[in-house]
Write a structure and sequence with these properties.
The protein is an alpha/beta fold. 46% of the residues lie in helices and 17% in strands. Its EC number is 2.4.1.57.
């Protein structure tokens, strides 16, 4: 259950669809109770409410308008669900209304995804927690995708949670990469060392930090010969980054939005993938996508979500929110290309992380939580 739409494929949507696919493959019947969705990507999708667009946590997102009770009752009566799994924090206007009308025998599970970017977002979460206090008492088991998300759940809803990471489908990512073929990957790589950034062009994702790091590296003469960049994605800062890149000697290509099916080939073409996000990350799915695709080395901004995903690997994490960040990042980029043994060590550690986050491992843990939630209902 998710208040937002499935018409886009952001982090939470990816979590839902990746996990849902794995559960269906295991023989479970899975349905999706979501906000307004015009083009369902899978079967079993129920649009429970209309949505409106708002800004929150540095992102543009959709929130539901009041979900009709009649539609809620119809879906619940027909579904006769053993478990309802809500993505949290949730709105009292849709998911909260569904929770309150769930059958007493239905197990309720919530997964927290959010990492607030500041005091305002945290206080807003606390207000929402008080509004949802009544419905949240109905929830049997709580999951968080990382420690920072668990801290948010504790602070805003007063609940403890089990940390189970976001899943990625390693086999599917590699299959998409292999379908692209080595010729396509080689073309994307081009001549010379290739650095890739993939993400939204908004301030907290750090695209401007990366461009400034390249500028600093050029001034110091520490960048490898032939280095070129691909910076893929779209967003309000894209044009500014394009203009800034014109002042650099290092070639930077801006291909715009990259589809999910094309993403693995682009990441596989990267000798180095850099994601210098400054905050607001509860997890780092894009880091894992780069690893699964076969990128050489991943460097990430040292925010709590990315630090959790990389298991505190200091050599792969770059200090952010510091005036020296561009210089630090430039030096780290230079070290990746100047010290192959060091870079291979990072690559080995990052590849070893994939089994921890693969959807089959995550689905095992989620099934355990579902079983406990159903048991909790019987006990009560």
């Amino acid at each position: 259950m998710f208040d937002d739409t499935l018409d886009v494929f952001d982090g939470v949507q990816q979590h839902i669809l990746t996990l849902g696919k794995a559960l269906r493959e295991r023989g479970h019947h899975v349905e999706y109770l979501v906000g307004q969705t015009a083009h369902p990507p899978v079967s079993g999708v129920h649009s429970m409410s209309r949505n409106m667009m708002v800004s929150f946590n540095g992102n543009r997102m959709r929130i539901p308008l009041l979900a009709p009770v009649r539609g809620i009752r119809k879906v619940l009566d027909e579904g006769r669900f053993d478990v309802l799994h809500v993505q949290a924090p949730y709105s009292p206007l849709m998911a909260g209304r569904v929770i309150k009308r769930a059958d007493p025998g239905t197990g309720l599970v919530a997964t927290y995804h959010i990492a607030p970017t500041g005091t305002m977002q945290l206080k807003g979460g606390q207000v929402l927690g008080r509004i949802n206090a009544g419905s949240h008492r109905r929830i049997d088991q709580v999951i968080s995708v990382s420690k920072v998300a668990a801290d948010y759940a504790r602070t805003t809803a007063g609940v403890e949670s089990r940390i189970i990471p976001n899943p990625i489908d390693v086999a599917a990512i590699r299959a998409n990469r292999d379908r692209a073929g080595t010729e396509s990957i080689d073309r994307l790589h081009g001549q010379g060392p290739h650095l890739v950034f993939l993400g939204r062009f908004v301030a907290r994702k750090g695209a401007d930090l990366l461009i400034e790091a390249i500028a600093q590296g050029e001034r110091r003469g520490i960048l490898p010969e032939g280095l070129h960049l691909t910076m893929a994605g779209k967003g309000p800062l894209l044009e500014r980054c394009r203009q800034r890149a014109q002042d650099l000697a290092t070639p930077i290509d801006f291909p715009g939005f990259v589809t999910e099916s094309d993403k693995p080939a682009l990441l596989a073409s990267a000798d180095l993938a850099v994601f210098p996000s400054t905050g607001g990350e509860s997890f780092g799915i894009v880091l894992l996508e780069a690893m699964a695709s076969g990128a050489g080395v991943i460097l990430a901004g040292d925010n709590p979500g990315y630090r959790s995903t990389l298991q505190d690997d200091e050599e792969a994490l770059v200090r952010v929110n510091d005036p020296q960040t561009p210089i630090i990042l430039a030096e780290r980029i230079a070290r990746v290309f100047g010290n192959p043994d060091w870079a291979r060590g990072i690559h080995r550690r990052q590849t070893a992380l994939l089994s921890r986050y693969d959807v089959h491992s995550v689905a095992d843990q989620v099934e355990e939580v579902y079983e406990q939630a159903i048991q909790d209902r019987f006990i009560r």
